[in-house]
Design a protein that fits this description.
With about 240 residues, the protein is mainly α. It has 2 domains: about 50 residues, Orthogonal Bundle (Arc Repressor Mutant, subunit A); about 140 residues, Tetracycline Repressor, domain 2 (Orthogonal Bundle). It is built from 11 helices and no strands. It is elongated and about 60 Å long.
């Protein structure tokens, strides 16, 4: 008979064995650590540079100078600057999407998830300025409804349709309406002359987005206001 005590003891034993294995594992070779630092320095430098201008206006010489590494180091990690830029774009997008997933944990309604996602992206733009700039500069092909990067959004639109709340828009149009609203809201809150609070921008644009997808005005307003209030009332976004 397996008792709770035995299960606990077994788990503790396994945890101890894993801990011992970790403690006895040799540290990563110095060359691997140096390689990882070089790659991180290149990506950090590239992110800042790509936030200021497009990849076509950027040279490898500028990237390695900003990263303070030898030019040959760049080609040890990346084939060309286009591939380098794609990797930075993917990293930033994953960072933002992870924040959306965290904010939407436990949220069941697709319309509410989309409103909260918009609020997260707006707050992301405020707290991660360079990342926001990179997102809209490296957006080639991302407007296609069937693009792999849009699989999550596509699922949300389809769920909204199944719930009977997608009115007057097909899948492609729904994806474009959500993406377009989020991108414009992110850009807008970073304009120097904007005086409207970011959470108000998030609430108003989320309400408009949900209305454009077919939700009744009162419901769209309720979901949008709640999303902005909750997202902007939480601790500073990490990541």
């Amino acid at each position: 008979m397996v008792t709770a005590t035995m299960v606990t003891a077994t788990r503790a034993g396994r945890a101890g064995a894993r801990k011992s294995a970790r403690e006895s594992a040799p540290p990563a070779p110095r060359v691997d650590r140096r390689r990882a630092r070089t790659r991180a320095a290149l990506l950090d430098a590239g992110r800042a540079l790509l936030a200021a201008r497009g990849v076509d206006a950027l040279s490898v010489d500028e990237i390695v100078a900003a990263a303070d590494v030898a030019k040959g180091s760049f080609y040890n990690h990346f084939t060309d600057k286009e591939g380098f830029a794609r990797e930075i774009g993917a990293l930033v997008r994953r960072q933002a999407e992870q924040l959306v997933q965290r904010a939407n944990a436990g949220i069941e309604e697709p319309a509410e998830r989309m409103a909260r996602a918009l609020a997260v992206f707006v707050r992301f733009a405020i707290e991660h300025h360079d990342g926001a700039q990179v997102l809209w500069r490296l957006n080639t092909g991302a407007t296609m409804a069937d693009a792999p990067v849009n699989s999550g959004l596509r699922s949300e639109i389809q769920a909204l349709d199944r719930a009977g709340e997608l009115q007057g828009a097909d899948l492609e149009t729904g994806v474009l309406l959500v993406m377009g609203t989020i991108v414009i809201a992110m850009r807008h809150v970073l304009e120097e002359r904007v005086r409207t609070a970011p959470e108000t921008v998030a609430a108003n644009t989320a309400a408009g987005m949900l209305r454009s997808l077919g939700l009744p005005a009162r419901r769209a307003r309720l979901l949008a206001d709640r999303a902005a209030r909750e997202i902007f009332g939480e601790p500073v976004l990490a990541g």
